[in-house]
Amino acid sequence: MSHRLERPRIAHMEDLITHVREPNFAKTSLQTFICNNGDPAPGRRLDRVIEEIQIDEAVRRLRPDFTVLAICAYGLSNGPTDDRSREWLAAAAAQAVPTDHEKVEAWRAAYRAFGAKPQRTRPSVDALVRRMPLPEINLVVDAYNTVSVRHGLPIGGEDLRRYDGAARLIRAAGDEPSEEALGDPEIGEVVWRDDTGVTCRRWNWRQCVRTRITEETVDALFLLERLEPLSSDELAAAGDELSGLLAAITPEVRIESRLIG
């Protein structure tokens, strides 16, 4: 189903919930809405990325409750943090889940399950709620950080034009190519990777530089990760909010979503 959204006039996070009118992500596994004129890089089918995302069975066995809402946004006009995104960040900081919330603890438990020490390498949402005021990065990163701390779930953001092949969540063999700054993954560690190598270590702890969202990013992949007790309805609501913020940044953005779990 396709339709066009008007630019939401968002002054506060409460207004976002009122103005976002996308269909609920929990209702379908794959949807597309909003038109734009952005073209993918020559020779690449960026619209296939969302269809090819894979979760390895070893990860499913580790946490059968894991699901991920993948959102692809095409034709973004990103830029530096502005007064509008500062308002988003400030409102989200005031509403952020506490560090001892059961949603955050669920991720610590998941880290311990594959041998990581979450007090040393923290899940991304755990690290983020400890950084107050929230950091100002760029409009798009500010948007997904806003949603992450409000809902207590990790969100990863990737530059699609720098991604190589399918996004896969796996348990590492230990020999996967990885950037020097990331270090080598340990055997059994949960990592996101593409055909070039590791894109994020320890599930959502640290992202590589190669696929990071910058002010020049035009097409992006967002991975909203869920463990119980976060509900499917709240995951869908988080996706709705993120899509509303992206539409506020770029009214002509085209967005696809897929629920994987």
TrEMBL record:
Pfam families in the cross-refs: B3_4 (PF03483)
Cross-referenced InterPro entries, in alphabetical order? B3/B4_tRNA-bd (IPR005146), Phe-tRNA_synthase-like_B3/B4 (IPR020825)
Return the protein name: B3/B4 tRNA-binding domain-containing protein
Q: Which GO terms describe its molecular function?
A: phenylalanine-tRNA ligase activity; RNA binding
User: What SMART domains does UniProt report for this protein, alphabetically?
Assistant: B3_4
| Domain B3/B4 tRNA-binding intervals | 105-251
